[in-house]
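Hey, why these numbers?
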Amino acid sequence: MFDQRIVCAFLYIISKYGYPPQAEMTTKHLEEMKALGFTSVELEGIREEHLMAVYENRHTFAEKLKSLELSVPYFCVVLPGLSSLDDQEREKQLALFEKGCEIAKLYGAKGVLDNAPLPPYQFPADIPVVRHYGEDVIASAFLPHDVSWDHVWSTLIETYRIACDIAARYGLTYHMHPAEGLLASNTDAYLYFHDAMKRDNLRFTLDTANQFAVHDNLALSMIRLKDHVDYIHISDNGGKKFEHLAVGDGKIRWDIFLETLQRVDFKGHLGLDIGGDESAVPDLDRAYRDAAEWLERDYLD
């Protein structure tokens, strides 16, 4: 079994079963991640329908986690609608967020995680159900002409302060995950957002592939964010597009990155976040096992 600091991220399940996968199959998903050799796993509640299905089955899943001796250090509560400018929609999303925190607390998680805020774009249809908002999706988005950015920013800060406070009531940290098109897609953007938020439990999930793709120097990012990062998503990237490759199949200098983790005395979790339909990973199981063995050998040993 792999060290508990090494987490099988939920992207493993998404890569096999789609986005979002069927929530009712979570017990099977847990068995699969355990069979790979993991003792720590990441779970998600993705928007209202999927999140509520997880919520309704939360006690069953908690018992399964206990029987398999699996821990869930971080639970992802994916709610892009939190950035809505509609008051009723935000209230609804915050209520869903609290249910996500309730699930996380039941699972014994340290924190909840979501993508960083999406600007209140309008799309030709509803907000697309995708993991990452790629160039084509972002290109189709627009802000209405009557929207004031000052109003957008103050509304976002108010909403996410409430979310942080909800998480704090459950004893949880609230982690922002960077991705293309979001308001905390790199180190500078997150620090700007953090300074405005003024909430001690706001954290950053460093994502090696996503940040490498936007040319955010990973070593420098880790040094600057050492007091903000408890959880890192690990996957490789070729530097030209958003992809989550097996470690060693991209251009990330892992020797420099691991040395930097030692330099800042990083003690948090490392989530293997390999795969997705945007990535060429011919043997998913092997990619996860190889990466876990590499971390144990080259970093944790």
